[in-house]
User: What shape does this take?
Amino acid sequence: MATLSLRDVRKSFAATQVLHGIELEVADGELVVIVGASGCGKSTLLRIVAGLETATSGQVVINNRDVTELEPADRDIAMVFQNYALYPHMSVFGNMAYGLKIRGMDKAEIERRVKAAAEILGIGPLLERKPKQLSGGQRQRVAMGRAIVREPALFLFDEPLSNLDAKLRVQMRAEIRRLQRRLGVTSLFVTHDQVEAMTLGDRLVVMNAGRAAQVAPPMEIFERPADTYVAGFIGSPAMNFIPAVLEDGGASAKLEDGSSIRFADGPRPGPAGRRLTLGLRPEHVEPTNGDGSIPLTVELIEPLGSETVVHGRAAGGMPIVTRLQGAFSGQSLSVHLSPKHLHVFDAETGRRLDS
Amino acid sequence: MSSTALPAAVPMQAERDDALLRATRRRRVMSKIVAHGALILGVLIVAFPIWMTLVGSTHDAATIGRGDVPLLPGSHAIENYATAWNEGGGKSRTTPAALMLWNSLLMALLIAVGKITISILSAYAVVFFRFPLRMAAFWAIFITLMLPVEVRIIPTFQVIVDLSLGNTWAGLIIPLIASATATLLFRQFFLTIPDEFVEAAKIDGAGPLRFLKDVVLPLSLTNIAAMFVILFIYGWNQYLWPLLIINDRSMETIVVGLSKMIGSGDSQNEWNTIMATAVLALLPPVLVVALMQRWFVRGLTETEK
Assistant: This one.
């Protein structure tokens, strides 16, 4: 079992810098998910850990051993690829055994390990088949089996679920989680899917434009996003952002329509007039008829069954999304912004402002 | 009223349908006749010379020598083929066809295998490795495509003679082994091998030669088979280079030997033996195509990616 440390990892492709100094400590047995939009550098980071790319500067340390200069094969890692990368001319057994065979392991031991891994993954009867005779989910399992038999210090997953259909994805997600817990292998998992990230990770690294915007457990990221990017990226539908300015004393903010909203958890620092972005998740935009409510014109209704997402627009043209229990129909809606759940960000830097 | 009109209308309708049906049938038959006619004409044009050769190889020398061109097989097949096989043709009783066939086979096989080996290795280097002047090397190979063998045949001849390789197998085969076409084709195929295979192999710990042997070659088998067919025939049909570099008649290839059998006109050509030799020269390429084609069609239908 092993730990992983990334120390100030930077990467440039010619003049373009894609990673701006990533720091990360992964504890033994932990599953850390790297999540971000396309082009944020998450795959590059994973490939640097794998040794498939060389970092421009910085260190990759696996189990207290600096592996920055080592070949992928010498890093004691295994990787599951997005399209599985199963060798099409080899049987399932051949695919799983290949890495061990190259390392010169004896036949009986290879057979034992492959059988054991196949057992865990429930692909025992498929060992003689070729990859093209397998379904997507089965290929996915074989790809994981190939990683498991190696008994590596570190598992790397590069969007392994994105080629599966929605139902299978949910199933395999749970399976990967169970398997990782059971084997207790330190893992790094890259995905662009925030639901995958939230459900799988012990901790998340939310990447934005080559930087780690926030590294924290899933619920902390959800409840206390470090900046507007993280706030908008995690959570579906996305958080509402409302421009405002800080009022005298820092205890409240003034919205564009002139109304004032008081922070429930204490004053924020800064002079009066400091420009803010208030964030509020759709489920915390509550329908009301009381005083100080904001009237919305309904633009789009998305029924999800047990709840309904309503896209509305306030008087000033500001879009507000709300999530209501049960069904909804109608042209207009009055809502109340729940101060308890308000996230306050600096409008210039996008950073979270705490009381 | 209407009840009397209706029965009359029905047979009329049926008659019209019948006419339509007949017209359709006629059109179908006509289009079949036209299609088959065109095909048969094509086959006749292509096959007639071969038929003439076959027929010619079964008559005695006198029949053809008289200027009669028989269209039906004669009765001298066995002796003609035996003469060609054992003694060769022409007045001077040149190299026997058996030896020439063996020479041609050896040359064609070595050229095909050599070309495939060299071009796989160079395509592998160009596609999977990053080294200085990689693209320059590729383009250098590529532009030789534009130079036919005949253009560089004098300098090549000079080089080979200077190396004292005239009249040797090495001198015959090595200059024909470099192949820009095969390199290009293998490069195009290698480019379709997903990068993930390379990366998975790196993580599995397979070195470059291991990856070539375990992954690239098995995936290229069908391409190799196709290239083998093409290159074998290319090698078999070589004429100008063997003619220049080989003087030793015991190393003569059948394509060159065949042309040497035909005299300059002073003496009677033994057309029967020449045609028998020509038929023998046809057989190996036909065999290779027939056997390998089945193999690579199977490969194409079982596409692995």
